[in-house]
Every structure is written in structure tokens, then in C-alpha cells.
Amino acid sequence: xxxxxxxxxxxxxxxxxxxxxxxxxxxxxxxxxxxxxxxxxxxxxxxxxxxxxxxxxxxxxxxxxxxxxxxxxxxxxxxxxxxxxxxxxxxxxxxxxxxxxxxxxxxxxxxxxxxxxxxxxxxxxxxxxxxxxxxxxxxxxxxxxxxxxxxxxxxxxxxxxxxxxxxxxxxxxxxxxxxxxxxxxxxxxxxxxxxxxxxxxxxxxxxxxxxxxxxxxxxxxxxxxxxxxxxxxxxxxxxxxxxxxxxxxxxxxxxxxxxxxxxxxxxxxxxxxxxxxxxxxxxxxxxxxxxxxxxxxxxxxxxxxxxxxxxxxxxxxxxxxxxxxxxxxxxxxxxxxxxxxxxxxxxxxxxxxxxxxxxxxxxxxxx
Length: 367
Ligand code: SF4
Ligand code: SF4
Known about the structure:
Elements: H1 9-19, E1 25-29, H2 57-64, E2 73-77, H3 87-97, E3 102-107, H4 112-125, E4 130-136, H5 141-148, H6 153-167, E5 172-180, H7 188-198, E6 204-208, H8 222-241, H9 252-272, E7 287-290, E8 295-297, E9 308-309, H10 317-321, H11 324-336, H12 344-352, H13 358-366
Helix pairs in contact: 2-3, 3-4, 4-6, 8-9, 9-12, 9-13
The structure holds iron/sulfur cluster (2 copies).
């Protein structure tokens, strides 16, 4: 077993509540390549530049040595992360060189054998690292396959979900992740019922589709999307209480995660149609984005607020993260402008890094 550098709790607490200088979670787009073509995807697949200049394994090795001493989690996404055949090596570099304790992978579920192999190999490499596969399923089988444009994709997702469960590895889990969009908002109730009853899925999360990249939500569908999202989050909450959905384990930490999700759902509902400001966002401070070609951004949405490119900075992430330009973007464009959006991943860290949510977080965890 490889043991990585331990995070010093005192550094972590100081960073989350006071300094907010080093990331605790990063989303790494390890590739833009994808075998699906979802109608709501933000990637511009028609632009040949989209697939150029992916960071090499060697470059990722250098990058992972410069991520600071508070990084708890990395989220591999894309494109389809398992389209990268060296994803196991990438994960090993993160485990060896950084302080991460968990790896989340957003996958379209089309490559189940690669995904299972990943879980087994990484668990054998370091069984203390938590692995969670977030398998995207947005619709009933026929429509899901049609919208994502891969034959039998739904079946492949279910196969992957079941295989992960059968591994019975303590730190390895799979969750079905539903994005509520203009494509499925009229059908959410049926989708949820089929997944939970017919396919016996008992770990389900959801998010609301965002305007990002080349995707724009049709205006006339927004109210219906919000209704679908509200119904679904209420249902997940109800099922969690009855233990019919178990997204996290039954530890205090797991209960905190549940409570955090519930607060985040309510925030999304307040922001989605009315764009209300609720609290400061910690994108660019506590969490951030590494794109496939090594660009660093505070979040997925502020595409015109690039901090810098890793290749132009000797693959030194922290040099870019703590540069004058980055700090200026955080101060002026995020904090002073009261930036707001419905990006759930970002909200998790906004809740965590803001003491005003903590009473609710703890109360919801206990009751
Ligand atoms: S699976 Fe993900 S990356 Fe691939 S086309 Fe669909 S939304 Fe885009
Ligand atoms: S509020 Fe949204 S768009 Fe603004 S910085 Fe945070 S995550 Fe990015």
C-alpha cells in the first residue's frame, strides 16, 4: 500500500475558514474526448482544437507535485474519463504525489470493463483512497441511448453500477447521477420510479443542467426543469430518510454529506429562476478546474477568467493558483461582484467554507 502525505488538520481548518489559499478539491478534465454526443453537452465537438494538446502523463506527474497540502479530493471528468487508457496511471500519480483521500469519476458508463479494472487496481494500490463512480443516467433506456447517441448505453450503465456493488470494496462505490434538463424534465417521476423499482438502483444524486460552453437552456423549459428538479430532490430526501436510497455511509461524515446536499438543493432552487445572491462563492480559492490542455480556471462557468496555463508555468499549479491575477479574479469577479450560479459541486465547498451554514449542517446531520 502507498501512503500519501497526510493532511495536517490544523492547516486544513485554517485554510477552509480563514486563508482560503489552497484548493481542497479539484475537477480535472483529463480528456475532452467522448464516445457520446449528448444534446446538452457543453463541449464543442465540431472544433478540432477541442481534442488537441491533452496533458501527457509525464506532465500530470509534474502537476500533481505542486497541489499544496490541503487537497482532499480530485474529480476526474471530461469528455469521458475512461476514454483515456492511462487513467489508472493518472490516479496513481495523484495518490503518490498529492494529499488526496478520494477520487470521484463522472462517467457516461459506456466502458464498464475499464471502469471496474480501475476500481480494482486503484483499490489494490491504496485501499484507503475512496473511489466513487458517478454514472450518468438521465432517461428511460430508449431515450437515454437516443439522447446520448450510444447504442445500449443505459444497459451498460446499469451493468457498471451492479458490478461496482458486487466488488464489495469498502471504499469503492457507484452512484447514478441524473442531470435534470430540457430533455427529461417532463418525465422525471417515471425515470426515478423505473430506476428505483425495476433496476433496484439505491444510490441516486442529481443536478440541474447549466448554461455552459455551447449549451444554452431553452427559456421556455426553465420552469419545467425547476419543477422536475424540485420533485426529484424531494423524492431523494424522502427515500434517504427511509433508507431506500443510501448515497453515503451511516457515519457522522456521511450524515454531514446528506445534510450538505439538502442545503445545496434549496440554494439551487432559490437561484435557478430568480438569480438570488445567497452567499459568497469560494471557487478559485477552495476548489478549481484543470482543463484537458492544462488551463486553470476558478470554475467551469467563468470560461473567460483563466488563471493561466500549466505548460507556460513549468507545470506548477500553485504558482498559478496564488498569482496576483488569480487573487484579483477572486476578489473582483467572484467576491465583489457577488457571483452566483447553480453549480452544485461549487456549492458543496461554499457550504463547507461558510460558518453560517454550520448550525444547519450539524442539526440536519443529527435529526
Ligand atoms: S457523456 Fe458527458 S462529455 Fe460525453 S457528450 Fe455526453 S455530456 Fe458530453
Ligand atoms: S458562483 Fe458559479 S460562476 Fe460564480 S465563481 Fe462560483 S461557481 Fe463560478
